[in-house]
Amino acid sequence: MTNFTGDSSRERLAARRASESLTEMVQVVLPNDANPLGFILGGTVMHLIDIAGAIASFRHARSRVVTAAVDDLVFLHPIKVGDLIILQAQVTCTFRTSLEVRVDVFSEEALTGFRQRTSRAFLTFVAIDEQGAHVEVPPLLLETDEQRAVCDAARERRAVRLRRRTDPI
Length: 169
What we know:
The protein has 169 residues and is α+β, with helices and mostly antiparallel strands. The protein contains 3 helices and 7 strands, in the order αββαβββββα. It has helices at 9-12, 42-61, 145-166, and strands at 16-17, 23-28, 64-75, 84-94, 98-108, 115-128, 140-141. The strands form 2 sheets. The protein has a 5-stranded antiparallel β-sheet with strand order 2-4-5-6-3. It has a two-stranded parallel sheet with strand order 1-7. The radius of gyration is 17 Å and the shape is globular.
């Protein structure tokens, strides 16, 4: 784990492993989280995805972060009241002042332990200072071929997102 002993920019911008950002959140789906059919609301899942992603981003950047974009959020399976919702988030790629986080969402039947992935989203966060100006984020150490491939895919998503941003509506 990275140990921060001062406020030096050099120390704050030291490269970090993806595992240092790994975040897992677990909670029970309660009736107030659900629609009339007894399944968690999509907006509640989106809220939890944003929180898990922000925590992973903060762990990497050690800076304030704000959500800039959400890509590829798909709901594959519903999550029932009484099931556990498990969110796993981890930084996948970094850029100069932003970073991408993958958040996988799982449901787990409380009585059987049966677990399945119900959603996946890619979120982009921007690091900011106290005045809201963008600040640099530490580089991500890409240690495996899989991590390099995941980061390459993130770069492609970013390029598409940036093109959309500059295209007239």
